[in-house]
């Protein structure tokens, strides 16, 4: 197994988590209601915990953070926020819907990461410490929470 490819793949997902965490920070700050802030704060903590598990696995494989990919994640977040504002400058709900959709898609990508790692785990001893079924279940739970909120937002955002 090419460890370089594995580390590249995992670091790509670290960059994605960076974008998600940055977007969640923005959503926490942007929402005045306590329920939304609590929702996004809890989700942020969950995604950060998953990222820490991924960082630890990368370190176990002998890798480290990819500064280029980290910068790419930061840059992608800024472009995403700009796109959201351009699509809905008045903030009538489309920004929120699309932000939730981006988070949902990212979480599905993370679940795909955990599934791929589960397939290669028997061949890569350094991955055997990861509880991949638990991480997959966490991703599915995160997706379900975000998707429910996204669908609740859709009628307001799309009928405005």
Concise account of the structure shown:
This protein is an all-alpha fold and 160 residues long. The protein contains five helices and no strands.
Give descriptors for this structure.
0% strand; elongated; Ferritin; 160 residues
Per-chain topology:
Layout: H1 3-30, H2 34-60, H3 67-87, H4 94-120, H5 132-158
Structure in words:
With 160 residues, the protein is mostly helical. The protein has a single domain (3-158), classed as Up-down Bundle (Ferritin), CATH 1.20.1260. It has 5 helices and no strands. The radius of gyration is 17 Å and the shape is elongated. The mean pLDDT is 89.
Structural class based on helices, strands and sheet pairing: mainly alpha
Number of strands: 0
The poorly predicted ranges are none
Q: What percent of the residues sit in helical stretches (DSSP H or I)? A: over 70%
Average the pLDDT over all residues and give the rounded result.
89
Order of helices and strands: HHHHH
Bin the strand percentage: under 5%
Rg measurement, Å: 17 Å
- Can you tell me the number of structural domains? 1
Briefly, what CATH class?
Answer: Mainly Alpha
**Span between termini:** 51 Å
CATH fold type: Ferritin
Major sheet, described briefly? none
The number of helical runs is: 5
Shape: elongated
CATH architecture: Up-down Bundle
